[in-house]
Write a structure and sequence with these properties.
11 helices, 8-stranded parallel beta barrel, 318 residues, globular, alpha/beta, 41% helix, TIM Barrel
């Protein structure tokens, strides 16, 4: 079933969903199952699986030079999606990236997904590589997420990159895209960011999942601006609890979001790790209850390997 159909079927009830990371290369699928097993009691209709582009490492050679080698530390997104669907009977939503993929490689991945019966995708540009100051697209790849959305829509209409394909089969992908309650860090302002998001929706995106945030006012303001701009698709808030002191620095640096002062003070005041975890849980519960009371279509939790903490939050909200 399509993600949007779950929201329609819920008839105003707030659904819950989760996002997981593929395990590091060399690990087993059991790590994913161990993470998801305790969360299945909340009956999520779908689970997102992230994709991680290649990274480069430099290997020392005998002659004193270095060899640049591309590696993927977390492969297996499509296989994990299939395993999740088979084990739990829920829909899995793979992330598709512009970064690291040519248009042809994207087409082949979509064909694989279609054959496997996976008909929901989250279309993202992806981040720049660690050593790049800005995002650099793959050769013959997409520069922006809107271009990826358009390619998926073309396949839904039977149009393929391969010019030799005539009367191609129509796919039926439901397309999600990212939204930023505190704007994308590369956008000059929020209005420009909303305009770009509207273009993605007009191109064929069916729903929006937001970047994490810690102040619900940011989300509600974002939704109001989206509606005023004519964006009428579901906008799903994304949440992640903060449970460690160092995250007060690392999360703003990585995700370009702000912490409310009240939350910062509570984390700093906590006497030990257990107390900080409890602060993070209580804050996320507060956020979730307020969002649920406001009638949001769903709440999307970024688990990041913290399933017990997400479980503790969900037990108090769902």
């Amino acid at each position: 079933m399509k993600v949007t159909e779950y929201f329609e079927k819920a008839k105003g009830k707030t659904l819950i969903s989760f996002e997981i990371l593929p395990p590091l290369k060399g690990s087993t699928i059991q790590e994913i199952f161990d993470s998801l097993d305790p969360l299945m009691e909340f009956k999520p209709p779908f689970v997102d699986v992230t994709y991680h582009r290649e990274e480069f490492v430099y290997k020392s050679m005998k002659d004193g030079y270095f060899e640049k080698t591309a590696i993927r530390k977390r492969p297996g997104t499509i296989g994990i999606c299939t395993a999740i669907s088979q084990r739990y009977g829920v829909d899995a939503v793979p992330h598709l990236l512009c970064g690291g993929f040519s248009k042809e490689e994207t087409e082949n991945a979509l064909i694989d997904l279609n054959f496997l019966g996976i008909h929901n995708v989250l279309a993202l540009r992806g981040d720049a590589r660690a050593f790049e100051s800005k995002f650099v697209p793959e050769e013959k790849g997409h520069k922006y997420a809107i271009e990826l959305v358009k390619q998926i829509v073309e396949m839904n209409n039977g149009v393929y990159q391969d010019e030799h394909v005539v009367n191609g089969a129509n796919t039926d992908f439901c397309i999600g895209v990212a939204g930023y309650p505190e704007k994308h860090f590369e956008s000059p302002n929020m209005d420009a960011d909303i305009i770009n998001l509207k273009k993605k929706v007009d191109a064929g995106a069916n729903y929006i999942v937001t970047q994490l945030f810690f102040d619900n006012k940011k989300y509600f303001s974002f939704v109001d601006k989206c509606r005023a701009a004519g964006i009428d698709v579901p906008i799903i808030p994304g949440l992640k609890p903060v449970t460690k002191k160092y995250q007060l620095n690392s999360i703003p640096r990585k995700f370009y979001v702000n912490f409310p002062e009240e939350l910062v003070k509570a984390i700093l005041k906590a006497k030990n790790a257990e107390a900080r975890i409890q602060v993070g849980i209580e804050w996320a519960v507060m956020q979730s209850k307020e969002l649920k009371a406001a009638g949001v279509p769903g709440i999307h939790f970024y688990t990041m390997g913290d399933s017990p903490i997400i479980q503790a939050i969900a037990e108090q909200v769902f």
